[in-house]
Amino acid sequence: MDHPFRGAAFGGFNRQDVLTYLENTAREAAQQREALEQQLEQQRQAAESALRQIEEQSQQILQLQQANQRLQEEKDALSGQLEQTNVALSTSRTERSQLSDRLAQLENSLAQAQTRIAALEPDAEAYAALKERTAGVELEAHRRAQTVQEQAEEQARQLRRQMERWMQRVEQEYDVLRTQVESTVSHAADQLDKAGAALKEVGVLLEAQDVALDSLAQAYADSDLTKVKAPMPIPES
Question: Which domain range does residue 208 map to?
Answer without folding.
Answer: 15-227
